[in-house]
Amino acid sequence: VNPPPQYQCDSVLYVTTHILDIDGEIIQTPCDDNATEVRFIPNKFDPLGVDSIFITWTNPSGDIILKTNDIDQPFHVTSANNGIYTMDLTLYKLDQVCTFSFSQFIECIISSTATSEIIKSYLRPNPSSRFVEVVHDQTGEIVAVEIYDTLGKLVKTEHNSFDKIIVEDFASGIYFFKVYFENGSIVTLPFTKI
Which of 45, 56, 72, 137 sits between 20 and 30 A of 188, alpha carbons compared? Predict the structure, then answer.
């Protein structure tokens, strides 16, 4: 007996990442409230004809943190670790198997600083093609800046000049500046390189 053919599932899932407070409001909070919401959207497969669905979430260490086959309601993945989280979905239908894999970089923010203070930090100019400056209203000085791409790869670390961080060698795209302050606060800011 031949195994069923394998297919990639195109747009089978709608995936959104939110940082939620305990009431479900979308804000920036400590990392144990990070949540990725996943909802099934039928595309290539008629949901009535799908025999079974399995969804698995894996944390950056490779440990399985969630397994489910319930697609009727959104489900949430929570964790207190930075890194890339991977979701694997497999749909089984009589003579076909459809697989889908999604990876999401989740940045945990551990800080005793109030959200209202964190929001006062930003990058300028943004977008930019040559350089960027970190502007903040935090108590304490910046001690380091780490810059990550959308895959979570560290592309640059800056320990000296924070008023003019050179980005002209970066490829065009979206980056995340992780800014460390001497008071222990950590802020992650999005940046667009043009």
Answer: 56
